[in-house]
Amino acid sequence: MADVKATAANNFQAVIIGGGPAGVSAALYLARANIKTAIIENGPGALAKAHKIENYYGITASGLKLYAEGLEQAYSLGVTIIQDEVLAVEYFDSFMLTLKNQAAPLPAPVLILATGTKNITLKVPGLAELTGKGVSYCAVCDGFFFRQKNVAVLGSGAYALHEAEYLKHIAASVTVLTNGSDEALVKAAGFAVISTPLVNVSGENKLDVVHFADGSQLAADGLFIALGTADSTDIARKLGAQINGRFISVDADGATNIPGLFAAGDCTGGLMQVAKAVYDGAKAGLAAIKFIRAK
User: Fold this and answer.
1) How far is CA 186 from CA 151, 177, 181, in A?
2) Comparison of pLDDT for 118 and 163, the residue scoring more
3) What domains are there in the chain, each with its CATH number?
């Protein structure tokens, strides 16, 4: 099974972000309904940590084996598999996806979010206390509030760079904090970078200072967290979908408050199990079929 280059010419009717049990389950229903469907996947995520799955009907396999066989099954039914990272999603006449390895955005009339939920946490004192008071997880949502101010982005990958690129047109300055990770990618993009690990952030009722392990400090009005890759909740939040904590709020059919946007699996909360993810994916897939046919 080979991945396919994503282009607007593919003319997909539905795009699914995430190739795990929820995403594949949705894709199977869509494909069997003759809906032209693509899955964008960037690796198995949490499923890779499952050494052996013994609590799913008819299956005893490792998480990696289940992941690979699921994608193969979807591919055999005509689903296009795009191996890439989604950096951002915007909505115009349809959802427009920015991919790491593609120059042109990919349109999607219907979008299903199924990447699971991010488990990356950073135990930095002050981070939780100052969230919403200078600490943010969404440049698109909150960048406006930091016009001509000094901000920092925490992260070192393509997602962090995408957030930094967005903010540089708004803020007075943008510094990328890699927290000990390789800084080469960030420097190549032309951003100021600090690679020293963070030890805490501080401020009276709002963020004022980021403190580093070597005793140095950075005065900052805003700190945008962009660790790892953008997950389903990150994408949903930027689109204006309703969020409940770190989970996406959906109705009984997996639909969000945004027409054409669905979510399934761990990103919607509840039981973090393969069985629940498959069920969620089936519901979202069937609801997406109804939505597409109604249009």
Assistant:
1) 15, 9, 10
2) 163
3) 8-118+230-294 (3.50.50.60), 135-225 (3.50.50.60)
